[in-house]
Design goal:
- The complex is a heterodimer.
- Chain A is an alpha+beta fold.
- Chain A has three domains: 6-200, Aldehyde Oxidoreductase, domain 4; 207-274 and 337-408, Aldehyde Oxidoreductase, domain 4 (2-Layer Sandwich); 285-324 and 420-696, Aldehyde Oxidoreductase, domain 4, CATH 3.30.365.10.
- Helices cover 29% and strands 22% of the residues of chain A.
- Chain A is built from 19 helices and 27 strands.
- In chain A, the strands form seven sheets. Chain A has a seven-stranded mixed beta sheet with strand order 9-10-7-17-14-15-16, sandwiched between helices. In chain A, strands 12-20-19-18-13-27 form a six-stranded mixed beta sheet, with helices on both faces.
- In chain A, α3 (66-78) packs parallel to α4 (105-133).
- The two termini of chain A are 47 Å apart.
- Chain B has helices at residues 24-31, 87-95, 104-117, 123-130, 140-152, and strands at 2-9, 12-19, 50-53, 56-59, 72-74.
- Chain B folds into two domains: 2-77, Beta-grasp domain (Ubiquitin-like (UB roll)); 87-157, Orthogonal Bundle (DNA polymerase, domain 1).
- Chain B is of the alpha+beta class.
- Chain B contains five helices and five strands; from the N terminus they run ββαβββαααα.
- The chains are: A alpha+beta, B alpha+beta.
- The interface between A and B is large, with 59 and 59 residues.
């Protein structure tokens, strides 16, 4: 990843009116979190002469609520009203470089950077106010962007007055950020900053950018991954009035001012493709993965496995599987590109505007300074919009046609080019003493990735192995199509396997699954979230299967602790599951926006029902067979369980992520609840009616 | 066939001269510049393109524009009156019944259609009515609450 030239951001910033405050870099104070971020803190904020504050961030709003939460962080440190903060996000010409919006990092990693910028700006303004008011800075108070001297009534000056019409350069030393107990904006749940636009239809997404003369592009796609174009006849397509045909290397596109006519022209192209050799399908994939995956590497080890084997009275070996899962955002990948005076501007639905800028520059042969990527609201990401093929295609076509070009994937393209959550296999061998203590844990994950693969229970002899994963390390031909990060990458797979296995072990020793977990947990944060969930749920200890249909699962996701309990009903005749109730307790350290956190938990629970129960991509020989929502079933209103969320207070710990963690328990908590309901153990996700019926028959 | 189609759009007369088979979604978005209705699936499965035609929720991605000739079309842009949000919009705002917002126009308009027909729906009726509207962010819980609240505001969600 190449960071943007910070001087560029600064130069652009200098073109804006308002206050310019220059700070020395306090790199040490920020630690590794600041890697790659511009050293000039001015990159993140601007105080306008009219008193409004513009907050500039390279993060984007995908629905996760960063637009509001980041504004809260800045308003808090700067001591301005939240309503006076205007957010500018994901515009590579004006916002500071950022790697991308993923990994639940906006608050955990970027938050401290933004807070530091706000705190230092406040310190400079206070110093300026002290000079203006003739009072020592230590005596002054700041409220809503107005500095006043409490010992001298009427002596006050606003940030706007301090900076109006002036350009000030000033350096201050390190300014300390506020302690948690002083927070007045952080920790509140104000109206979301995107609320009005989103309920009135005014919110603009990449596909909504209306530039006169825009051509809508439809691009010829192969029927399968690995298929090659053999023969093509475009004569009929070219007869559509107003259509433009573009052939450029591997790309054949038809463009028209109206999307339906571009579509019609695409339908008239006669193309013959040579399909790839027969390969894997969604049933043979798991054997293929085990045969093809690179040798596993050790990612964690303690104790001696042979000792664990010796101590164990019971050994339980299991294999867990999960299929490929699509992101299936409601907004398909969309982009509009325009080239004017040698500069390309691309409005893109992307989680990674800065990397996309580099990719577009490379595709066009432009210098990066001549590419601007603007990210309007994004209609869901979940990792799927880290890859942004459509933006590059739109830019290429804009260059080739000399017109603004829109590329909006249809739903079939969205499935075809999705970077799926990888299919994966987990093998676990665990051992219990005669007294029911876990003494052995030998864990190997193939193709999901090693994030949170290491378990957190107190087990003396353990090893964790990992082979390949969503972020690379794959052998060629391992996956028949693109894979990538999917909300909480690796961790849905790892949690499903671990927490299912823990339940099996608890069952072996006839101990209540919550009690079994607690008896192997000295991690206080984990105990606390489990206990909080149990209290809310009204967990009653019992051996599984109790027939009640209750389950528990717990996990850590990059510093956030989550415990989830669920109650399900299983229709034995059909194998259908209705999840009736889900309780989730989360400890994410300092809570920036409680309602925002609850939205993420509720959303994760709902979305997680999909990969738990129905979602799997079906494919054969490179062809993606699921092309729309008629066969790829995502959660809907009729699935809605009663959802209860608990935010476990832990202000001692810095704010960590909350957008991904609560989804990770959903596979195991439902698997465990199904077992408790009907005694059928599901070892493969999704737990479809057919698989449940199979498990009921002892399959 | 290219011809002129007239209909009422958000209370005002609208005329477009287009291929009459063009889907209403494209006419709204690209001939009339109203982008509140969204493309989601293209075959009427997801509800992101929902608009109201003669008080019924329809999927504009699969409704040819000729089908709305002479009819009343309401889009999200026409729901608030004189700068005042409709009670359903107010309720979605209050409950934060959205995340990415992409499905929201369709959700609000389908809720509007429900409350026109059934001013005081039960929770089960809301879920049944909304079941074909997809939300990937998982705001379902809040959307149901918002519709319940809007229903309490009066018949049709109107004050």
């Amino acid at each position: 990843m190449i960071p943007d030239d910070p001087n560029l951001s600064r130069r652009d910033f200098l073109a804006l009116p308002g206050l310019f405050v220059f700070f020395p870099l306090e790199a040490e104070s920020q630690g590794p979190a600041r890697q790659g971020y511009p050293s000039d803190f001015n990159a993140y904020l601007r105080i306008g002469a009219e008193g409004r504050v513009t907050c500039l961030v390279g993060k984007v709003e995908l629905g996760q609520g960063s637009k509001t939460a980041l504004a809260q962080l800045l308003a808090e440190e700067l001591d301005v009203a939240l309503d006076s903060v205007d957010m500018v996000m994901g515009d590579t010409d004006v916002c500071p470089w950022d790697m991308g919006t993923f990994g639940s990092l906006s608050i955990r990693q970027f938050g401290p950077v933004l807070r530091a910028a706000g705190a230092e700006a406040r310190a400079v303004l206070l110093e300026m106010a002290a000079e203006r008011l003739g009072a020592p800075a230590g005596r002054l108070q700041v409220k809503a962007g107005v500095v006043s001297d409490p010992s001298s009534q009427g002596k006050r000056v606003s940030y706007a007055q301090l900076v109006e019409g002036k350009r000030i350069e000033r350096h201050v030393g390190k300014a300390s950020v506020k302690p948690v107990k002083a927070y007045t904006v952080v920790g509140q749940s104000p109206r979301r900053k995107d609320a009005i636009e989103k309920v009135t239809g005014k919110a603009r997404y990449a596909g909504d950018m209306a530039i006169p003369g825009t051509l809508h592009a439809r691009i010829l796609r192969p029927p399968a991954h690995g298929a090659t174009l053999k023969d093509i006849d475009t004569s009929a397509a070219e007869k559509v009035v107003g259509v433009r045909l573009v052939r450029d290397g591997d790309m054949v596109a038809v463009l028209h001012e109206r999307p339906d006519l571009a579509d019609k022209a695409l339908g008239l192209i006669k193309a013959q493709f040579v399909r790839p050799q027969p390969g894997v399908d969604d049933k043979t994939i798991f054997d293929h993965l085990l045969k093809t995956a690179p040798p596993p590497r050790v990612v964690g080890q303690s104790g001696i496995l042979a000792e664990g084997e010796k101590l164990a009275a019971t050994i339980v070996d299991e294999t867990y599987l999960n299929s490929y899962v699509a992101h299936a955002t409601m907004e398909t990948h969309s982009a509009v590109a325009m080239i004017e005076n040698g500069k390309a501007t691309v409005w893109a639905s992307t989680q990674t505007p800065f990397p996309v800028k580099q990719q577009v520059a490379q595709a066009l042969g432009f210098t990066p300074e001549n590419v601007r990527v603007v990210t309007p609201y994004v209609g869901g990401g979940f990792g799927g919009k880290s890859a942004s093929r459509q933006a590059i295609e739109a830019a290429r076509l804009a260059k080739l046609t000399g017109k603004p070009v829109q590329v909006v994937f249809d739903r079939a393209e969205e499935f075809f080019y999705d970077t799926f959550r990888p299919a994966a296999v987990v093998k676990i061998r665990a051992g219990l003493t005669g007294a029911g203590k876990m003494v052995l844990w030998d864990y190997a994950v193939y193709c999901a990735g090693d994030r949170e693969a290491q378990q957190f229970y107190d087990i003396p002899h353990q090893r964790t192995l990992s082979s390949g994963g969503w972020s690379g390390g794959s052998t060629p031909g391992l996956h028949p199509f693109g894979i990538g990060p999917w909300r909480a990458p690796s961790v849905n797979t790892n949690t499903f396997a671990r927490e299912s296995h823990i339940d099996i072990l608890a069952n072996k020793v006839g101990v209540d699954p919550l009690e079994f977990r607690l008896s192997h947990l000295s991690d206080k944060r984990m105990r606390r979230v489990l206990e909080a969930a149990a209290k809310q749920f009204g967990w009653k200890a019992g051996r599984t299967p109790s027939g009640r249909g209750v389950g528990v699962s717990c996990a850590i996701y990059m510093g956030t602790y989550i415990a989830t309990m669920a109650q399900v009903a299983v229709d034995k005749s059909t194998g259908r599951v209705q999840v009736q109730r889900v309780v989730c307790a989360q400890d994410e350290g300092v809570i920036v926006n409680p309602d925002g956190s609850r939205q993420q938990i509720e959303g994760s629970i709902m979305m997680g029902l999909g990969y738990a129960l129905t979602e799997e991509v079906r494919f054969k020989d490179g062809e993606v067979l699921d092309r729309n929502f008629d066969t790829y079933e995502i959660p809907r209103f009729s699935w809605l369980p009663k959802i209860e969320t608990i935010l476990v207070e832990n202000p001692e710990v810095p704010a960590s992520g909350c957008g991904e963690p609560p989804i990770v328990n959903m596979g195991a908590v439902i698997a465990n609840a199904i077992y408790d309901a009907v005694g059928a153990r599901l070892r493969q996700l999704p737990m479809t009616p057919a698989r449940i019926q199979g498990a009921l028959k002892g399959g | 066939m290219r011809r002129t189609i007239s209909f009422t759009l958000n209370g005002k007369p609208a005329r477009v001269t287009v291929d009459d088979e063009r889907m209403l979604l494209w006419v709204l978005r690209y001939d009339l510049g109203l982008t509140g209705a969204k493309f989601g699936c293209g075959i009427g499965l997801c509800g992101a393109c929902t608009v109201i035609v003669n008080q019924q929720a329809v999927r504009s991605c699969s409704t040819p524009v000729k089908d709305v000739a002479g009819k009343q079309v309401l889009t999200i842009e026409g729901l608030s009156k004189d700068g005042k949000l409709h009670p359903i919009q107010e309720a979605f705002l209050k409950h934060h019944a959205f995340q990415c917002g992409y499905c929201t126009s369709g959700m609000i308009l389908d809720a509007y259609a429900l409350l026109q027909k059934t001013p005081r729906p039960t929770r089960a009726e809301i879920i049944r009515h909304m079941d074909d509207n997809f939300c990937r962010c998982g705001s379902h819980h809040r959307i149901v609450e918002a519709i319940q609240e809007a229903a309490g505001a009066g018949p049709g969600g109107a004050r």
